[in-house]
Each structure stands twice: as C-alpha cells, then as structure tokens.
C-alpha cells in the first residue's frame, strides 16, 4: 500500500494519498540527450581531481570520502548537533497520525516551501472538510523518511482540491533606518530672497 498522510482534528482522523507536484508535472519538460556514435544515450560520470576514480550517478549517495581518502558508508554516518552531541533521529510520519493545529495566514506566508503535494482524500471527516472549504489552514509535522529534522506542513484547500505545503518556517528580518533625520523647517521657508540678480552676470 502506498504511503498516506494521516492527520487528526478533534479526535477525527483524515487520510490522504499524496503525490508530489513539480514544474515538470505542470509544464512538462524536455531533456537534451548526449548520444554516442551508435546512438546509445550516454550516462553522466565525474572524474576525481587526481583521476583515480570515476563516479557514476548515485554513487556519492552511498557514502563519503574523508580527507585522508578513507571511505565511510552512509549507514555508518551519524548526525551531530552544533554543540557536538549526537542528534536524535526523527521517525517518518508517513502513515502515522499527526495532530492538526489551526494556522494563520502569517504562518502560511512565513513557510519556506520546499515540496508541494496534491492530496487525494481517502477518509475526510465532514468537520475538517467544511473548515478547509471555508478557508481554514492547519499545520502539522511531516517527515517523509527518517531524518534529523522534521518539516512543517500546511494543509489547505481551494477550488482545485486539497494540498499540503511542506517546508521550514522562516522569520523575516525587516530593515529600518538607524537614524531618521528630521527635515528642517527652514528648508520649506520661501520667505527668503532667493531671486537672482541678473546684473551679477
């Protein structure tokens, strides 16, 4: 069974199947293929600086090389906090029910969206359906796969359907003048004699 997004509101659970929406799904895409002399598509690879090894696509996701050249498989890597303590891994929330919290328009606008999911309601309580159709927005915790940082998701609806926007909250930094200089009253005073004396020329 495919994974689902499960959320609860006032004890009632809603279940959504989800599909990632990207530019290719909306606008389509074109690819430029490099072909060899026989017409076969070429595969991309990277050559190390010293020329000792050729890395094909996907190989760097299996682990990392340390500066001394030792290979460390990804399964042996551990997350470390800035203070040096081991980071706690956050489990996947796919299929695990998450509580909904009503969000504001500011919460939605302050979300740095990384992924958008189109949702297909498998189970949707009437209370949540009515709230979404009236414009309410809800937040919940989302983590597609076990990781060291969970993301924030926003659940909303429009005429096209139900959506989940996934990302991290941001805090806008507003800039202002450190010193505001007042305009002198004399600057707007036209009582002075500023007429030019053409006999001066």
Provide a quick synopsis of the model.
The protein is mostly beta strands and 201 residues long. It contains three helices and twelve strands, in the order ββαββββββαβαβββ. It has an eight-stranded mixed beta sheet.
Please give a structural write-up:
By secondary structure, the chain is mainly beta. The chain is built from 3 helices and 12 strands; from the N terminus they run E-E-H-E-E-E-E-E-E-H-E-H-E-E-E. It has a domain at 4-21 and 91-169. The protein is 9% helix and 34% strand.
Shape: extended
Tell me the span between the first and last alpha carbons.
Answer: 93 Å
Helix content: under 10%
The spatial strand order of the largest sheet comes to: 7-1-2-9-12-11-10-8
Q: Provide mean pLDDT, rounded.
A: 85
Radius of gyration: 29 Å
Give the low-pLDDT segments: none
Count, helices:
3
Note the beta-strand portion: 25-35%
- Helix/strand structural class: mainly beta
* Biggest beta sheet summary: 8 strands, mixed
The helix/strand series, from N terminus to C terminus, equals EEHEEEEEEHEHEEE
Strand tally: 12
Features:
3 helices, 34% strand, two-stranded antiparallel ribbon, mainly beta, eight-stranded mixed β-sheet, 201 residues
Show the helix and strand layout:
Elements: E1 4-9, E2 12-21, H1 23-27, E3 45-47, E4 54-56, E5 63-65, E6 71-73, E7 98-99, E8 101-103, H2 105-109, E9 111-123, H3 126-133, E10 137-142, E11 151-158, E12 161-169
Parallel strand pairs: 1-7
Antiparallel strand pairs: 1-2, 2-9, 3-4, 5-6, 8-10, 9-12, 10-11, 11-12
